[in-house]
Amino acid sequence: MYQLGKLNSEKKGHYHIILQSIFRHFSHVCIVLIFISVSLSCAQSKEKNEIDQRPNIVLIVADDLGFGDIGCYGGEIETPNIDALASNGIRFSSFHTAPMCAPTRAMLLSGNDNHIAGMGGQGLVTEVFGYEGKLTDRIVTIPQLLRDAGYHTYMAGKWHLGIEPNDNPHRKGFEHSFVLLEGAGNHYTNQSALNNGISSYTEDGEPTRWKDGNYSTNYYTDKLIEYIGRYKADDQPFFAFAAYTSPHWPLQVDEKYWKKYSGLYNDGYEKLRERRLNSLKKAGIIPQNAILPQLHEQIKPWDSLSEVEKMKEARKMELYAGMVDNLDDNIGRLITYLKEIGEFENTLFVFISDNGAAHRDFINAENYSSLREYYNDDYENMGKENSYISYGPQWAEAGSAPFRYFKDYATEGGINTTMIISGAKVTRKNNIHTGFLSLLDLAPTFYDISGATYPEKYQDKEIYPLRGRSLLPYISGKTDVIHAPDYVFALEHYGNAMLRKGNWKITNFKRPFELENFALYNLSNDIGEQIDLKNTQKEKYEELLMEWAKFSEEVKIQIPAPSSK
Ligand SMILES: O=[N+]([O-])c1ccc(OS(=O)(=O)O)cc1
């Protein structure tokens, strides 16, 4: 018994030791497990905090807005909401886009040249490199990379980067989108002058119709607010692209927006242009010694117009001002909403125009026969949903003062546009930056801010590297310079060509395109591109032409552009 008892007690002791040791080990294991899980959850919540802190990005693009239109650029049009963004941030006086809508949007969303992106010629669809008429897989878009980096991505407004389902914003990185696929459409209805009479809209890639009676800018704002609202409770930041179609023709807006501008333009476009020159100077946007360039040859002197013509002309500008006023109101609605949901402080805002003021006036009911059956452009009807008005080169040239010409041209009037950056990450307040920058700098800025890395390949395809530079060091006050003094920037669209190296610029818009038609300007004292220095600064001219040849080969420019399939 004893033996047995001893054995039993020995056994028991043995078991006890084993159990103790298991327990000790177990408790060690537990401690280690607890430690791992605590550190993991700390790491996770740290990561979560980091994600939480990344700012939302709101990119607002106005369509064909003139350089000096808005209040904070000296303009008489009332834009208190955009002005408030400006006073809380930076206005740029030398921000550059492409001279037309679609190449600008391609450059903006890709951070690359329009040919590399696939938009060498707005309106062309070909199989030729650079002229595919859509965003190709040589590039990746801002929403694609931001979405991969954990952002929600929303868009409302004009797309204009391809009409096929595969080209849709839904396939190009936007989680939610409500878009007009073409370059322009009636602001109140489905009617279009461009696409067999009907505008094409899609929501999240599915065809949809415009609900007649809704107004473009109001509805696009509603849509963005709806998309942001859907996910406001989760932790992800968002990228919202407000691609407004205002103040693009047809000039249409509710009376309450334009009535307050009644009579303001009765002294004509040349006078407005002079006022704009002075108001831009007063706002500190352009140099005090800037002068107005020669008027475009298409423009009839105001004094040569009849009284009836003058009335109609002045009304065009009143309508245009009303559209900009309404645009500002809607930006205010978006801001108010972001304040209500507590997201305003953590949002970076960028406001730009897609190109200079628009001169095209061939699309109106008078001279565009397919529109006559729908539209009535009589004085009393101007601005209503069944009128089709554009304000023409005369007002566009006032809108692009003090630059030469307007949209379509690669002169500064076509490509030097309004740009404001404000909000999260922007430490400079009420600041004006006069140095050169371009829309190619926006994609790298957004990647920098969101922590997204730009890859060498996207979805197994090699992509072209970014061409611009992040603005983050500048906007956060870490540097005063954006681009080096010898920075080269060039662009081409239908033979409208420019290349800039520092303040030297070569510009070409003559037809047919010939290399020797490039003129040379020194923008440090000639922002109106009036004094051609190519015969007196031969070395500089040759240097810039060499840069042009390099650029042209690199992005595979074809002049004339290949024809559509
Ligand atoms: O010629 N069009 O058909 C045409 C021209 C310009 C345009 O506006 S833009 O903003 O898309 O350049 C739209 C259509």
Account of the protein in words:
Keywords: Calcium, Hydrolase, Metal-binding. The protein has 565 residues and is α/β, with parallel strands linked by helices. It has one domain: Alkaline Phosphatase, subunit A. 34% of the residues lie in helices and 15% in strands. The protein has 14 helices and 17 strands. The strands form 3 sheets. Strands 1, 2, 3, 4, 5, 6, 7, 8, 9, 10 and 11 form an 11-stranded mixed beta sheet that branches. A hairpin with a 2-residue loop joins strand 14 and strand 15. The longest helix has 52 residues. 49% of the residues are buried. The structure holds 4-nitrophenyl sulfate. The site of 4-nitrophenyl sulfate (4NS) has 9 residues, from loops.
What's the short story on this structure?
With 565 residues, the chain is of the alpha/beta class.
**What CATH architecture would you give?**
3-Layer(aba) Sandwich
Which ligands are bound? 4-nitrophenyl sulfate
What's the end-to-end separation, in Å? 105 Å
Tally of helical segments: 14
- Per CATH, the superfamily is Alkaline Phosphatase, subunit A
> Uncertain segments of ≥5 residues (pLDDT<50)?
1-13, 38-51
Briefly note the CATH topology name: Alkaline Phosphatase, subunit A
What portion of residues belong to β-strands? 5-15%
Mean pLDDT: 92
Helix vs. strand class: alpha/beta
CATH class: Alpha Beta
**Shape, per Cα inertia axes:** globular
What is the number of independent domains? 1
Our Rg estimate from Cα atoms comes to 29 Å
Strand segment tally? 17
Please summarize the sheet with the most strands: 11 strands, mixed
Please estimate the helix content.
Answer: 25-40%
